[in-house]
Amino acid sequence: MSFAEILGSTLSPDANIREQATRALESAEIENFPQYLLSLTQELVNDAGQADVRSAAGIALKNALSAKDEARREQYAQRWLQVNDGVRSQIKQGVLISLGTENHHVTMTAAQAVAAIIAIELPHGQWQDAITVLLQNISTNNANLKIASLQTIGYVCESIDPEILVTQSNPILTAVIQGANSDEPSQEVRFAAITALFNSLEFVRQNFENEGERNVIMQTVCEATQSPEPTVQVAAYECLVRIMQLYYDKMSFYMEKALLGLTVTGMKHAEEKIALQAIEFWSTLCDEELELQIEEEEAQEFGRQADRQSYQFAKSSLGLVMPTLLFLLTRQDEDADEDEWNVSMAAATCLSLLAQTVGNDIVSFVIPFVEQHIRNPDWHYREAAVMAFGSILDGPDANVLNPLVTQALPVLIEMVKDQVVQVKDTAAWTLGRVCDLLMECIQLGVHLHSLVSALVAGLEDNARIVSNCCWALMNITEQLGSNSADTYPLSDYFEGIVTALMRITESNVNENKSRTSAYETMATLASTGPKDTVPTIGKLGVAILDRLDTTIVNASQVVGTDDRVALGELQSNLLNVLTNVTRTLGRQVSEISDRMMTTVLQLLTTSSKQAAVSEDAFLLVGALITALEGEFSRYLESFAPFLYNALQNYEEYQLCSISVGLIGDICRGLGQDAAPYCDQFMTILLHNLESDALSRDVKPGILSCFGDIALAIGGSFESYLEVSFRVLMSACALSANTQANDDDTIDYLNQLRAGIFEAFVGIVQGLKSDNKAQLVLSQAQGLLGFMSIVFSDHTKSDEVTKTMIGLLGDLADAFPNGEIRDYLRADWIQELIKYGRTGPRGSSIREHTRWAREMIKRASS
């Protein structure tokens, strides 16, 4: 079979033929990678070949060079760079030639292949003339070559670090603007150029700083919004959205001269895709101004000027934007799928963001619309009125909204029984918003009975309504409930709500996630129910356990992938309810704990390939350990093998992380009784720390776990001290030498530092309990030196600060006779204690500091 025939077979409607062809390609790729790429290139450039085969060759070539996963992408890059220079040159020449092919689908895949090669080579200083060749192509009269080259530049800009292209930003921008210009006769070329401009906006920052160049860019994009071709208009509005996101500070002049009018007109466009992008412009603008508000508040908190200024475009534009948005709310598509994004949904989202951005100023625009249409016989206007009201509940001051909500509540409760599904659904959603954001508006003696009755009745309605009724009920119980209280306003309704939720979850149907929502509501009720609901919560636990047992029995009958996924989701729902039931029942769960653990072990045996189910099962076990404490020891031998396997499951790192947490739960719950398992725990944990295959996010928790083990077994931890100290001090060095250049790194460093300090807290306290604190003394200088570095880092979190203060107190308490007196007199420690004492009255950091100060004072005197 020829290479072309193999590629053609990958497109066969016959699954067996497709699979055989795919395996043949994979074998060719493994056996001789350079020849595989050459063969693909030969098929791509073959003008006599079938277009779909040529396209398949281009896609296979691109897939051999790039991947979404970063590690695999780097692996593919290294593989390509190891290919002989001559072979690489042949391939590059071939893919460039293919850009001029007449067939659009072939040129598009060729563009992707060219971009994939450039993305690998340019960062390594190779194929330096690639961009120049593409720019020359754009200046030719060959429309296909021009379009394909513009597409290639767009793909390159999208996939490569902007810094690498900065030196070529001027010629790229010139070519792209030329292609996007209103004088360009081909709308296909304009579309490709505008798309390339969109992808290049990040690295033309220097050009945006130049007023003249900025004006040219903005004029080109604004003119493109008036193109006769809708696809060009959509791409132009997408550009405006991105420009507002990247260059808000430069937009004042353009908002006044063009953008306000263009986008309001665009929102009214009959073409939905254009209207959606115009609405998105205002949503993005609101996002930017909300971020600026946060920056302003933070600056005021620290007594300084904010770095950037808000021009309050949203506030000054309400008069033009609001009438259009309110009208767009009435453009619902009654046949649309609930998850299908449309103009009315986009308008509601934008309205919600506007409310958060401008606050009270939005109320005067929305309330007249609501009053005019809330009783409108046309359901479109009725639903729009309710949606408008619900959308502004987050933003304006509570004292402005309270009287309006109190007045509207009876009407909203009544509308949950409307004849039209869309109106009922939005009414239930709005009630959920009220219960979430403005619970104080609900007069319990006046509104609660009718509200709960309407929501429970809604549980028997359409699946869309069920989800929002569940959400409203969750918000009510979260706002009013507490496990420590004797009773709460929902107590009289509690059993009835649970019964209704159990009834609607008897079906195997999970339309619109209604069944999932119902189980989430049960879990929330179980976690917030006061003492007088505990008997009902206990009965709920038994009933849910019955259902979980049934799913295990029925698991053998499940065949299809979709059915397996649905079963796993149901089991996770049931496990979540049981977890919250266990937490609320506490020690009382011992009545059913034998049965629970039997079920969990069966489930872990049968659902080994479903990580989500295993994660939820482990969370339930954690709740059982916390509830039963030492009594859990009778289950540990049976459960331990599953725990060990999960700890070594690097691919499912979240499951591994939960497993690490379970070790902490076991140690806290069992104390010294956990000692027989600690050798195995420490062996696995240390191996995990050394592994490059395990996500780094799991490792701070492992360090913290050392502290849990030390606290549990006290002086017996001495046998693990040498290796623990080596690992912890290595982690200190890593933390001290890592530059925090981005939010992800800052978060990770804070987690790592907290893990280090929590480990030492546990070790110090554990050893001190058996009069072995002297074993830590050798680490004091290095540890306190690291702590001083952390103290001087302004990116440290409050949690790290609190843990560090607690550790200082523990060290001082462990060495009260002056052993570390000189270290404790350091200026930074006094500054840290002073900082901790300024915490809010009654806060945990203030309590930690008060105790630590006394210990330090005693140990340094």
Automatic annotation (TrEMBL):
Transmembrane segments: none annotated. Pfam families: HEAT_EZ, IBN_N, TPR_IMB1. InterPro entries: ARM-like, ARM-type_fold, Armadillo, HEAT_type_2, IMB1_TNPO1-like_TPR, Importin-beta_N, Importin_beta. Residues 21-101 form the Importin N-terminal domain. GO terms for cellular component: cytoplasm; nuclear envelope. Keywords: Cytoplasm, Nucleus, Protein transport, Repeat, Transport. One of its GO terms (molecular function) is small GTPase binding. It is found in: Cytoplasm; Nucleus envelope. The keyword Transport applies. The keyword Nucleus applies. HEAT repeats lie at residues 321-364, 408-440. It comes from the Eukaryota. SUPFAM superfamilies: ARM repeat. One of its GO terms (biological process) is protein import into nucleus. Its main location: cytoplasm. Belongs to the importin beta family. Importin beta-1 subfamily. This is Importin-95. The lineage of its organism: Eukaryota, Fungi, Fungi incertae sedis, Zoopagomycota, Kickxellomycotina.
